[in-house]
Specification:
Blueprint: H1 2-20, H2 27-34, H3 42-65, E1 83-85, E2 91-92, E3 96-99, E4 108-111, E5 123-127, E6 132-136, E7 153-158, E8 162-168, E9 172-177, H4 179-199, H5 207-244, E10 249-254, H6 265-272, H7 276-289, E11 293-298, E12 319-321, E13 328-330, H8 331-344, E14 353-358, H9 369-374, H10 379-382, H11 386-392, H12 406-409
Parallel strand pairs: 7-10, 9-14, 10-11
Antiparallel strand pairs: 1-5, 2-3, 3-4, 5-6, 7-8, 8-9, 12-13
The structure holds zinc ion.
The site of zinc ion has 8 residues, from loops.
C-alpha cells in the first residue's frame, strides 16, 4: 500500500504538470518530490518512480502510433503496488535474503532457498492472489543451440492426454505424457466442487464463508503453479528432443476446432481446461531460443487417415489401426507424421523409434509425480520460468492424496462433515 502511495503521488505530480502545461517531471524531479516521504526503502521508492516514468514513455509512444486506441496516461488510483528492490539493495546471505525497508524499520527477511543465485538482479514482491511471490531477475544460462541440419523438420501434434507428440523427418518420434497435468486439474476440479458445496450452505460473508473462499483461492493458485510448471517441463523436453535430433524447423499443429465438438460433460470440462495455446506459446519461444524456426498452422484431417495407405478412419483409443493395410501405430504420432505433407510437402515414413516421456520426471528414474515434485528436479530440464515461483511460497504443500484432505492441506480447520 505504501508503494501504491508512491505511485499515486507520481500520478498526481504528473497530472498537475499536464494540466498546467508546464514541463513534465523528470526522473530527478520525481526523486526529489518523493524523497523521505514514504515508509519503504528509498531505492524501492525510486523503483516505483522509474516504473511510472517507463509507463508514461510507453503511453506517449502508443498515443503517437495508435491514436485510435485512446490511451490514457496513468490515472487510476492504486491501492496496492508490488515492492521493488534494485540489485544493489538486495543482501543475499548464506541462509537468508534480506530486503531492507529503510532506516529505522525492520527488514524483510526470507529464508534462502536452495539454488538461489548469489548475486541476483532486482527483486519484486508480488501478491499472487493467495500469497506473496518473490520475483527475481536472473541471467538466463546459455541455451543449448541446435546444431541444425537444413531439411530436418519436425511436426508437433498437441494433445490433452499426450501433451506433445513429435515426429521428425529423420524417423524419430517423442511422446510426452500430459497425464500429470490432467491429474492435477482433475484433483482441482474435485476439490473445488467439494469446497463450493460446503460454502453454499454458509450465509454469504460469514466467517466460515470467507474461510472457504480463502481455501478455494489457495487451492486454485497452487494447482495453477503446478500445471504451469509441468507445462514448461513438458515443452522443454520436446525442444531438447529437437535439439538432439538437429531439427532446423518445427511446425506446430493448431488444434483449434477439436475442442468445440460437444462430447459429454466430463470430456467437455477436460477440453475446456486444455491450454493448448500455452503449449504453442511455450514451444514457440523455447524453439526460437534454441535457434530453430517455428511456425504453426492447421492440422485438419491429420489424425484421420492412415500414414501408409491413406485410408480414412477415425481412431478409437490410443492406437491407430488400419483396417485396409494392417498398419498399427500411436495415434498422436500418426497425427504428427501426417502433418509433414501439410507443413513441408513431404511424406515421411512412420517412425521406427518412439520415445515416451513424462513431464517433470528426471530421465531414467521412475518416480511417481508426487515425490518428483518434492525432490529438486534436474535444473537442465526444469530451470525455466516457474522455478522462481517455487521459491515464493516456501516448501510446496504436498498434494493431499484424497480430496477429503483438502481442508488439512489448506491449514484450515474443517470439521469432519459428512459430504
Ligand atoms: Zn493403411
Amino acid at each position: 500500500m505504501e508503494a501504491a502511495r508512491v505511485w499515486n503521488t507520481c500520478c498526481e505530480i504528473h497530472r498537475e504538470a499536464r494540466k498546467a502545461e508546464t514541463k513534465w517531471p523528470s526522473r530527478g524531479d520525481l526523486q526529489v518530490a518523493t524523497k523521505g516521504e514514504f515508509r519503504i526503502h528509498s531505492q524501492s521508492v525510486q523503483m516505483v518512480a522509474h516504473a511510472f516514468l517507463a509507463n508514461i514513455d510507453t503511453t506517449r509512444q502508443l498515443r503517437k502510433t495508435h491514436p485510435q486506441m485512446g490511451m490514457r496516461y496513468p490515472w487510476k488510483e492504486k491501492r496496492f503496488y508490488p515492492l521493488l528492490w534494485p540489485a544493489q539493495a538486495v543482501h543475499v546471505e548464506a541462509t537468508r535474503i534480506v530486503l531492507p525497508m529503510g532506516r529505522g524499520r525492520k527488514s524483510l527477511v526470507i529464508p534462502r532457498p536452495v539454488g538461489f543465485p548469489d548475486a541476483p538482479g532486482g527483486v519484486k514482491v508480488c501478491w499472487n492472489g493467495a500469497g506473496y511471490d518473490l520475483h527475481v531477475a536472473i541471467e538466463a544460462p546459455d541455451e543449448a543451440q541446435s546444431q541444425a541440419v537444413d531439411g530436418v523438420h519436425a511436426t508437433v501434434d498437441l494433445g490433452e492426454i499426450h501433451q506433445v507428440a513429435i515426429a521428425t523427418s529423420t524417423g524419430k518420434a517423442l511422446v510426452v505424457s500430459g497425464r500429470g497435468i490432467r491429474s492435477v486439474k482433475r484433483y482441482r476440479n474435485i476439490a473445488l466442487g467439494q469446497i463450493l458445496r460446503l460454502r453454499s450452505r454458509c450465509s454469504k460473508g460469514s466467517r466460515r464463508y470467507r474461510r472457504l473462499s480463502w481455501a478455494i483461492s489457495r487451492s486454485m493458485h497452487r494447482t495453477l503453479r503446478q500445471v504451469r510448471d509441468l507445462r514448461h517441463k513438458g515443452t522443454r523436453r520436446a525442444i531438447a528432443f529437437c535439439v538432439e535430433n538437429a531439427v532446423s524447423s518445427i511446425y506446430v499443429g493448431d488444434p483449434d476446432g477439436v475442442r468445440k465438438r460437444p462430447s459429454g460433460r466430463k470430456h467437455n470440462q477436460r477440453m475446456s481446461q486444455w491450454e493448448y495455446g500455452k503449449d504453442m506459446q511455450y514451444l514457440d519461444y523455447k524453439s526460437r531460443k534454441a535457434g530453430m524456426e517455428c511456425c504453426s498452422g492447421t492440422e485438419r484431417g491429420t489424425s484421420s487417415h492412415c500414414p501408409s495407405c491413406g485410408h480414412r478412419h477415425r481412431p478409437k483409443g490410443w492406437e491407430w489401426a488400419c483396417k485396409k493395410c494392417g498398419f498399427r501405430g500411436h495415434r498422436d504420432v500418426v497425427g504428427a507424421v501426417n502433418m509433414h505433407p501439410l507443413a513441408y510437402g513431404e511424406q515421411i515414413e512412420f517412425p521406427s523409434q518412439i520415445t515416451y516421456r513424462r513431464a517433470g520426471i528426471t530421465q531414467g528414474t521412475k518416480q511417481p509425480l508426487r515425490s518428483a515434485r518434492r525432490s529438486r528436479p534436474d535444473p537442465g530440464l526444469g530451470a525455466c520460468g516457474p522455478v522462481l515461483s517455487r521459491y515464493a511460497n516456501g516448501p510446496t504443500t504436498q498434494i493431499a492424496g484424497t480430496p477429503q484432505g483438502v481442508g488439512q492441506a489448506e491449514g484450515l480447520r474443517m470439521e469432519a462433515h459428512p459430504l
